[in-house]
Amino acid sequence: MFEWIFNGKKLRENGVLGMNDRNYSVIAKYNKRSLYTLVDDKVKTKRLANSININTPKMIGIIEFQYQVKNLLDIVKGYDTFVIKPAHGSGGKGVLVIKKYDAEHFYSASGDVLSFKDVYQHVSNTLSGLFSLGGKYDVALIEEAVNFSDVFKNFSYHGVPDVRVIVYKGFPAMVMMRLATKESGGRANLHQGAVGVGLDVSTGLPLNAVMHNKPIFEHPDTKANLMDLRVPFWREHLIIGSLAYDMTGLGYLGADIVLDENRGPMMLEVNARPGLAIQIANGKGLKTRLQEIDEKYPLGLSAEERVDFVLNQGK
């Protein structure tokens, strides 16, 4: 099924978008550098999203300076669970999900038991830029943890799965769901060992599934059949991705969306340089899809109209 991945001629025949082509023909052409700051800073992205009523996890607080680290417990008072993440991080680096804590320890989503010193050190490392793009001084964003929807309980291991939507000129172009594994430490990042399930953009139904770029058919830990995966509120997921285009002006972006049991689909973050592994998960090339949008998709539509146009392509 995936033999074309390792054959240059087949890659071209299947319309696979390569890294250089993505950088020069797509990103450089449609993503103004001045707009990157809107998505490279998670605090700014969250505030911008909330200003146009895009659903996001609630921001509990931020820690900007080392002297504020000692105030962590005061900031999270009243919250049993929370997430600490670098405002300028990427690839899931530095994200720490705390499921509960008591007078002596914090308990992470991956099952680790951490001392107060461990967590305070993690926040300090975040501020120093250990997890940020370019290693620059950063800010620690503390936000409400997603209330994991039971609908995915058999498809993810100790972590919240997310839907990655590649959006091109405001249209959802390609989609996959990323599922945490034991190997990935509860994180939904493919390069850390998560599972990627390609989803048909028009229907939301599974197409293929991969782990470490190799096809799989069941989750390695839960043994769930990955072709049984279904995503509720599919249209709402795609609308959030489409709105990310209106919000940022980026012609090519990746929107990461999670499903909260109580609040529905929520946008976690937006990426101005989304990776290309989504093509492997879908078993098809992205370049052909972008060309189709260029040639056949109408201009001047609202986010909802763009999504409905995409959904109607599957009928």
3D architecture notes:
- A hairpin with a 3-residue loop joins β3 and β4.
- The chain is built from ten helices and 13 strands.
- It has two domains: 202 residues, 2-Layer Sandwich (D-amino Acid Aminotransferase, Chain A, domain 1); 86 residues, Dna Ligase, domain 1.
- The chain has 315 residues and is α+β, with helices and mostly antiparallel strands.
- The chain has a seven-stranded antiparallel sheet. A six-stranded antiparallel sheet has the order 1-6-2-3-4-5, sandwiched between helices.
- The model has no long low-confidence stretch (mean pLDDT 91).
Can I get a quick summary?
The chain has 315 residues and is α+β, with helices and mostly antiparallel strands.
Determine the CATH superfamily of the largest domain.
ATP-grasp fold, B domain
Average of the residue pLDDT scores = 91
Number of spatially distinct domains: 2
- Helix/strand-derived category reads alpha+beta
- In CATH, the architecture of the largest domain is 2-Layer Sandwich
Largest sheet: 7 strands, antiparallel
The CATH first-level class of the largest domain comes to Alpha Beta
State the helix count.
Answer: 10
Low-confidence stretches: none
Spatial order of the strands forming the largest sheet: 11-10-9-8-7-12-13
The H/E string reads: HHHHEHEEEEHEEEEEEHEEHHH
Which bin fits the share of residues in helices? Answer: 25-40%
Q: Which percent band covers the strand fraction?
A: 15-25%
Query: Under CATH, the topology of the largest domain is which?
Result: D-amino Acid Aminotransferase, Chain A, domain 1
Find the count of extended strands (DSSP E, 2+ residues).
13
Our Rg estimate from Cα atoms comes to 19 Å
